[in-house]
Design a protein that fits this description.
This protein is of the alpha/beta class. The chain is about 20% helix and about 30% strand. The protein folds into three domains: about 5-95, Elongation Factor Tu (Ef-tu), domain 3 (Beta Barrel), CATH 2.40.30.10; about 105-215, Nucleotide-binding domain of ferredoxin-NADP reductase (FNR) module (Rossmann fold, 3-Layer(aba) Sandwich), CATH 3.40.50; about 225-310, Beta-grasp domain (Ubiquitin-like (UB roll)), CATH 3.10.20.30. The protein has helices at about 75-80, 115-130, 145-155, 165-175, 190-200, 245-250, 285-290, and strands at about 5-15, 20-25, 40-45, 50-55, 65-70, 90-95, 105-110, 135-140, 160, 180-185, 210-215, 225-230, 235-240, 270-275, 275-280, 295, 300, 305-310. It has a six-stranded antiparallel β-sheet, covered by helices on one side. The two termini are about 15 Å apart. The protein binds FE2/S2 (inorganic) cluster (FES). FE2/S2 (inorganic) cluster binds near residues 263, 266, 267 and 281.
């Protein structure tokens, strides 16, 4: 099920290096909905539907604020970078898939580069709610988007590192020293997130204590081959490495509604009857992922050799 679309108007644009910060306000004066920290909106660009984390205040926002890193090879970001004040864009959401765990005793936020965007609203909410938290922030030396605000919000709870060695050393110290009530939240480049997960695993962290948000529009790893059994049609379909489940179903003549092909819109949701999905989307909530009874066919794969789907 997709969320209703609305037209929002670009109210302001400012830039930090290759990042454009856009405030999108209502063009009809109607108030915008509040959102859960860590939420994103979906923006329709000429090439695709892309997800962008909301960086501004989450309660009664006067505008939805996003920060977009310019990438030459991503049509969505280049298109957003050429917008001017007054342009309107088609937006759906906000969508929450990276919510805070309010029962956590301590929140450990781990940020890489532009991965700061979904963490900002988490940190703001943690400050407002007087929650225990700390931030480990890795970015290249020099000015980086939102770091002034992050420093203001965090004070001494912020550790900044500018190289991989320092990041791994700090992470090793902090991950080894966390009580069971700590939840880690992770957003950054794929290789950084994989390194953090591997380190946490070595230090005995259960996977459910780590929440993460992946970037959209980034090429996903090809994954390994798997098979699907289709319960209604009693057919079997093989999904090769580097081919999405959605593509494999389409090739077999099985139509699945879809829209973004990036795991952000929710249109290609398919019920899972058996097997463990490997979720790679930004749409399902943590509890939906944990229940394992649905996946997004455009990006998700299988942790086992076979899945049974409600198709
Ligand atoms: S087509 Fe949008 S989530 Fe799969």
């Amino acid at each position: 099920m997709s969320t209703p679309e609305q037209r929002l108007c670009v109210a302001t644009i400012r830039r930090t290096g290759t990042v454009a910060h856009l405030r999108l306000g209502p063009s009809d004066g109607r108030p915008l909905g509040s959102f859960t920290p860590g939420s994103h909106i979906l923006i329709q660009t000429p090439a695709s539907v892309n997800a962008y984390s909301l960086t501004g205040p989450h309660v009664d926002p006067g505008a939805y604020e996003i920060s977009v890193q310019r990438h030459r090879d991503r049509g969505g970001s280049a298109w957003l970078h050429q917008l001017s004040v007054g342009h309107t864009v088609s937006v759906s959401g906000p969508v929450s898939g990276f919510a805070p765990v309010l029962s956590a005793a301590h929140h450990l936020f781990i940020v890489g580069g532009i991965g700061v965007t979904p963490i900002l609203s988490h940190v703001r909410a943690a400050v407002t709610g007087s929650r225990s938290f700390e931030v480990i922030d890795a970015h290249r030396p020099g000015p980086a988007a939102h770091r002034d605000e992050l420093t203001r919000l965090c004070g001494s709870r912020l550790t900044t590192v500018t190289d991989r060695g320092a990041l791994l050393q700090r992470l090793t110290e902090r991950l080894a020293d966390q009580p069971l009530g700590t939840i880690a939240y992770l957003c950054g480049p794929a290789e950084m997130m994989a390194a953090v997960r591997a380190l946490a695993d070595r230090l005995g962290w259960p996977a459910e204590r780590i929440r993460s948000e992946a970037f959209t529009g980034v090429a996903l790893a090809p994954g390994r081959p798997f098979r699907v059994r289709l319960a209604r049609s009693r057919r079997r379909v093989a999904v090769a490495a580097g081919v999405s489940l959605l593509e494999a179903l389409e090739t077999a003549g099985i139509a699945v509604p879809h829209r973004c092909r990036q795991g952000v819109c929710g249109e290609c949701r398919v019920g899972v009857l058996a097997g463990r999905p490997e979720h790679r989307d930004l749409y399902l909530t943590e509890s939906e992922r944990a229940s394992g009874d649905a996946l997004m066919a455009c990006v998700s794969r299988c942790l086992d050799d076979e899945l049974e789907l409600a198709l």
